[in-house]
Amino acid sequence: MSVDIAELPTVGRMTGPEFRAFQDTRPDHERWELIAGVPVMMVPPTILHNRIADNLARVLNEALEKYDVSRIAITQGGLELDAGNYKPEPDVYVIDADFVAGQRFADGAYLLAEVVSRTDDVRVPGTRRPWIEAKRDIYLAQDKCQAVLIIQQDDIEVGVDVRTATGWQSHTLIGANAELVLPSFGLRCRLDALYAGTPLVPRRAML
Q1: Where do the domains of the chain lie, and which CATH numbers do they carry?
Q2: How far are the Cα atoms of 118, 163, 195 from residue 153, in angstroms, in the given order?
Q3: Where are the alpha helices (DSSP H) in the chain?
Q4: What DSSP character marks residue 119?
Q5: Radius of gyration of the chain from its Cα atoms, rounded to whole angstroms
Q6: Is 0.90 topped by the overall pTM?
Q7: Are 201 and 195 a contacting pair, CB within 8 Å?
Q8: pLDDT of residue 92
Q9: Which pLDDT belongs to residue 29?
Q10: Is the pLDDT of residue 64 over 50?
Q11: CA gap 12, 160 in Å, rounded
């Protein structure tokens, strides 16, 4: 069910730079996104959400260690995207590995992934579109991005967008045995690897 942005904690409208300055004043545990100029504090993610994000980062990093050590997967860090008065915060993303101590934001990412949460159903101000749909469009518009993943929490289902020489190709994977293949990242795994240790794929089911 969609959520009105007015139902969530917000402050006044801001530009992108104003939003970043505002974030600098907030505690590290708070998570904010800028949606059409409106800063919105995200509700804390569920344990299930965090487990899926951690699993994805793990399988990506394991693959990248063998395929391309110049890249790493990060969860819930800062990311600067070319998106005007929108500042989404992806759950998992792949960036260059040569970051420096104290660096808070990375410029662009090669892979952007979202584990769909309640706040992703927020309607973008001035539209009827859920925030998750707008975020996907923002991610697809990034020049550096090679893959976008939209991962469901309630079902084993992953929307996959992969950039090819002729444009983006999109498909949906459903079920624990479905295979996620991302050649640009050296990744090939079944979806149960992303949901391992969750109520959807309990540890006892993997023994």
Answers
A1: 45-206 (3.90.1570.10)
A2: 10, 24, 9
A3: 16-23, 47-67, 131-140
A4: G
A5: 17
A6: no
A7: yes
A8: 97
A9: 65
A10: yes
A11: 34
